């Protein structure tokens, strides 16, 4: 597929703006990483493979925001109470 000059300029501007936004948000990202590390432990980042354009896989990175359910329940109930976890199976809804 042949690229038009517009596409190349748009791509260059997209990369420039994304790089600038990354640099400007770096102090906030460092604070968030420190807070995640203190509150949730390591690893700080969650990674996941996802399909992108034309089905090509890419790795997505984001800060962890969820706790391990067993860890959370143990902290609330204390060391002398057993923890039971019930897993619900996903059942799609049916239209009436």
Please report the number of helical segments.
2
Low-confidence stretches: none
Terminus-to-terminus distance: 46 Å
Major β-sheet annotation: 2 strands, antiparallel
Order of helices and strands: HEEH
Please tag this protein with its features.
alpha+beta; two-stranded antiparallel ribbon; 15% strand; elongated
Describe the model:
By secondary structure, this protein is an alpha+beta fold. It contains two helices and two strands. A two-stranded antiparallel ribbon has the order 1-2. The longest helix has 36 residues, at 5-40. The protein starts with a helix and ends in a 19-residue tail after the last helix. The mean pLDDT is 81.
How would you briefly describe this protein structure?
This protein has about 100 residues and is an alpha+beta fold. It has two helices and two strands. A two-stranded antiparallel ribbon has the order 1-2.
Q: In terms of topology, how is this protein built?
A:
Blueprint: H1 5-40, E1 45-51, E2 57-63, H2 69-77
Antiparallel strand pairs: 1-2
């Amino acid at each position: 597929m042949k690229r038009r000059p517009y596409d190349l300029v748009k791509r260059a501007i997209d990369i420039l703006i994304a790089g600038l936004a990354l640099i400007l948000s770096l102090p906030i990202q460092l604070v968030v990483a420190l807070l995640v590390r203190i509150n949730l432990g390591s690893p700080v980042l969650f990674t996941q493979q996802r399909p992108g354009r034309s089905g090509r896989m890419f790795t997505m990175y984001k800060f962890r925001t969820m706790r391990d359910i067993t860890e959370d329940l143990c902290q609330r109930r204390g060391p002398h109470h057993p923890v039971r976890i019930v897993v619900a199976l996903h059942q799609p809804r049916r239209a009436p």
